[in-house]
Amino acid sequence: MDGAYNTCIMDATQPDTVADWHETAFDLTRGIAAYCGCSLVGGLAKVIARHPQADVGNAFNHKQVACKLWARDKLYESCGGRFANIWIVGGWYGVLAAMFFDDPRFDIDAIDSIDIDPGVAEVAATLNDRWKDRFRAATADMYGLDYAGGAPDLVINTSCEHIADLRGWLGLLPSGTRVLLQSNDYFSEPTHIACVASLDEFEKLAGLRQIAFSGELPMKKYTRFMLIGTV
Predict the structure, then answer these.
(1) Domain 59-230 top-level CATH class
(2) I want to staple 33 with a disulfide (CB 3.0 to 4.6 A). Which of 42, 75, 103, 133 is the partner?
(3) 176, 155 Cβ separation under 8 angstroms
(4) How is the chain split into domains, by residue range?
(5) What is the reported pTM?
(6) pLDDT along the chain (231 residues), means of 10
(7) Strand partners, 155
């Protein structure tokens, strides 16, 4: 009887296991943002509160973050931190843009995060609200963009495994445009229609005129490949 009674007392004092996850996550991220003074985490708290449908668990998982940190650090090492206008195609929720803005090493006038999915622009704008004077989320097909007229000094595509014709897309960019490209060898993912088996294959596929950085980042289930250079 004592054992049963003690169990009842313990269960009564446990947190409600069906409490709203979003409310808990919002409180947690808001608290972390206040503690560390991080605008990016503060933006994430706003996303959780305003966009409960957003797949932030996937967007901010450790693999996604690791690949973006790698891109940010290698870009700084290869090209410095001063940019007038960066276009990120396939920008999704604008996480990479927020990571650039949050890094004091970078001096960027504007970042355009462009994605064909009309459901992500509002989320990206919320995440980057702290930098709304320098950030724009647009819904567009990257094949229909005016790269010459827009004149970005850096174009980023971290989802080349989703592009059936990488060379065809790169051919739309004016000669001399700087690019940062990522792909992987995760062939078992159905949405990855253009994976590459090696870094060498990625270099040949991209056919860049000049390469400032070429490297790979081993992950648990795949290897991420990255190129930084000019078309």
Answers:
(1) alpha beta
(2) 42
(3) no
(4) 2-54, 59-230
(5) 0.85
(6) 44 50 67 67 82 84 90 98 97 96 97 96 96 97 95 95 92 97 87 90 96 96 96 97
(7) 87, 179
